[in-house]
Write a structure and sequence with these properties.
Chain lengths: ~180, ~180
């Protein structure tokens, strides 16, 4: 991320980024991750390999950026009219997505090609934003709400820690229980 | 880890493992991580490169095994006579060790060269064992104690998640607060 220059939307920089990300996604599907090389991605994206090296450093950093793009939430959390229901549902979906083979692969890529931790920070910021949306909605309804960092500690952290370090027996029920305990204990 | 054959203590297998681990540690200190190669490690350890490839797969898996060795606790947690004090102190030390540049580098290595998650599982098992020791000691003193998995969720998971994904403002006081809340809320 630190190598990425300021991006002017619609400028050449944005077009290059989109072409390269698309090339990575297509080639991952076609030839698989282990076979992927920078020259192969460059050829598909219509840029020179040195454009990729200059901007991303190496293949692992590029894969990290692509992974973070995938981990960006596409919509705000569903609104069920009550924080407990919102958080329970969101926690369960978050666990399902992150613990899926695809989710694990992206999380791994995001961490691996990210020596300075910028992409890991982005992943966490996405989760914090989703949590913040639910809490603000609940506060607007007059509910008493914990702060974002508490929900990160109580729900997001255990889910992510267990996926990475202690994956046995991870279920939707576990995620829902974490959400309940974050609000009631 | 899956490549590692059953090790007979004192047998050739153990001697090779010790020699190779020692070579990695020495060379990391002398030439630094980025310069490390399998042939270099093999030469220092007095084995052939193919011995290393056969046993560890590649350099990253070898580094992952060496990292996990470093993350293994050297002693049981200090006994302060009361669970709250034991857990507060342990949480603070755990955070300090894991968040240090060395701790972060080992955690990263442990995760990266570990596609099947065995080494990550070992790291978590080490933490669970330390927590289990404190809880068993407290139960023996007649204290009421939570279960190991609760302490993992409430103390270990937030510390590890924040080190990896959300490292701003991590302090000993934060770790101590997690320990207090795990026992009182």
């Amino acid at each position: 991320m630190s190598r990425r220059p300021m991006v002017r939307p619609g400028g050449r920089s944005t077009r290059v980024q989109q072409a390269v990300h698309t090339a990575v996604r297509e080639l991952q599907a076609e030839v698989g991750r282990p076979e992927l090389t920078v020259p192969m991605v460059a050829a598909r994206a219509g840029v020179t390999p040195s454009t990729i090296y200059r901007r991303w450093g190496d293949l692992q950093e590029l894969l990290s950026d692509v992974a973070v793009e995938h981990l960006r939430p596409e919509a705000p959390p569903e609104d069920h009219g009550r924080l407990l229901d919102d958080l329970r549902n969101w926690a369960e979906q978050f666990l399902e997505e992150m613990a899926s083979p695809t989710g694990r692969a992206y999380m791994r890529d995001a961490l691996l090609g990210d020596p300075e931790g910028d992409n890991a920070g982005l992943c966490s910021a996405y989760a914090a934003e989703q949590v913040g949306t639910m809490l603000a909605r609940a506060a607007g309804r007059g509910e008493e709400v914990p702060d974002v960092e508490t929900v990160i500690d109580r729900v997001v952290a255990p889910v992510m820690y267990r996926i990475l370090f202690r994956p046995d027996g991870l279920t939707g029920a576990y995620a829902r229980r974490l959400a309940e305990e974050a609000l009631t204990r």
